[in-house]
Design goal:
The protein is α/β, with parallel strands linked by helices. The protein has helices at 40-47, 69-73, 91-101, 106-119, 135-147, 165-180, 192-198, 216-222, 228-236, and strands at 2-11, 14-24, 29-33, 55-60, 63-64, 76-79, 153-157, 184-188, 201-206, 209-214. It folds into two domains: 1-75 and 169-240, Rossmann fold; 84-150, no CATH class.
């Protein structure tokens, strides 16, 4: 479960996130939409413990990310919009490194790595230095390393960027399976089609505020049955 309570993040005079409150329960697939600079990535970085909130709090599975960061993070899978990988390692070495960070036993680590790399067709790349891999292949490596430890919460920022259509489908299937198994899934994307296809609920951010939350049907009912694109544009376009 993700619990965000009156979260605000200020950078000098800029209020990037403004008093957001949101609960995403176990087993829900939640998609956050918003234009550039809406505050999505800042919100996610606070959720992941990479930034401290100016005020308010974020709890992951009951653990405050500021007060108990290790307990919160060990329950979370996080992939940023630009993942950092150790380029001199091979994917296999990176998976071992990540698994050890999460305290995984060697057998479980190897089994999960093999299962996930098989689904993402990474077999031929496992012994190559990460620095020699394409952007899309690096993205797949980052996703596998994040999911290996069977997280209770998955937080991905623009995870489909760089993936080809086949591996986008693989990722969608895996995330839907995670939600069906009771994992909380929180995904930021610019792709409205992903929200329409995958989300149990959709949040729309604009200028640091959460301006709408609901299922696709609830958003349509509240906005005269418009398409998600029309609803998004109406809520995030400033009138002159």
């Amino acid at each position: 479960m993700i619990e965000i309570d009156q979260l605000t993040k200020q950078f000098g005079d800029l209020r990037a996130v403004a008093d957001i409150s949101l609960t995403v329960p176990a087993g829900e697939f939640f998609v956050i939409l918003g234009p550039n600079a809406a505050g999505k990535t800042t919100t996610i970085k606070v959720m992941a413990g990479l930034m401290k909130p100016t005020s308010g709090s974020v709890r992951i599975c009951g653990f405050d990310i500021s007060a108990s960061p290790i307990e919160a993070r060990r329950r979370m899978a996080y992939v940023p919009d630009f993942p950092f990988l150790y380029d001199k390692l091979t994917p296999t070495e990176f998976f071992q490194f990540t698994g050890k960070l999460f305290g995984m036993e060697d057998g479980a680590m190897q089994a999960e790595a093999e299962r996930l790399t098989g689904r993402f067709n990474l077999g031929e790349f496992l012994a190559k230095p990460i620095e020699d891999l394409s952007h899309g292949t690096k993205q797949r490596v980052a996703i596998v390393s994040a999911l290996m430890h069977s997280p209770e919460v998955v937080v991905f920022d623009e995870p489909m960027v760089g993936l080809d259509p086949h591996h986008t489908r693989v990722l969608k299937d895996i995330l839907r399976e995670q939600a069906a198994a009771g994992v909380t899934v929180f995904v930021s994307t610019h792709q409205l089609s992903v929200a329409e296809e995958m989300a149990d609920r959709i949040g729309i951010m604009h200028q640091g505020r959460l301006v709408a939350v609901g299922s696709h049907e609830e958003l349509q009912a509240a906005n005269r049955d418009n398409t998600l694109e029309s609803i998004f544009l109406a809520l995030t376009t400033d009138n002159a």
